[in-house]
Design goal:
2,3-Dihydroxybiphenyl 1,2-Dioxygenase, domain 1
């Protein structure tokens, strides 16, 4: 069984994809826009993302735009935890922090030699970044 997070946006999914590719060196494994669906008849929403899937640190994250203009609130009830190398953690923290809220600065974790950070990005998604020291 796999648990795959699905992040939903209001016409910001493309910008979020670009941000996460830059933050995590992620690969875009799938990207389908609503306008590409057979029989699509709502041109106002056509450029929005129906489904995207990113490969991030060996895990998958799915993303989509909602078919509404109402804001979508993620809140801090859920955080996505990623275990990264310390160098990528620093990169991710810098990119996600742009326009976001740094909840916990990049901090050494002690004996493990790694780092930790928690950031709410500009899209309202909370990321818990856990680093591993290079071996």
């Amino acid at each position: 069984m796999a648990v795959i997070p699905l992040l939903t946006f209001t016409d910001e999914c493309t910008a979020a994809i670009e941000t996460y590719v830059a933050a995590f060196d992620a690969d875009i494994e799938r990207l389908v826009r609503f306008q590409d669906a057979p029989g699509w008849d709502r041109p106002r929403f056509g450029r929005r993302v129906m489904v995207a899937e990113l490969a991030v640190a060996g895990e998958r994250i799915r993303m989509s735009d909602a078919l509404t203009d109402l804001p979508i609130s993620t809140g801090r009830r859920l955080a996505i935890r990623l275990e990264l190398g310390d160098q990528l953690l620093g990169q991710a923290a810098a990119v996600l922090g742009e326009g976001g809220v740094v909840l916990t600065e990049v901090t050494p974790t002690g004996r493990s030699g790694g780092c930790y950070a928690m950031i709410e990005d500009r899209f309202g998604v909370v990321w818990e970044l856990v680093g591993r020291a290079a071996r």
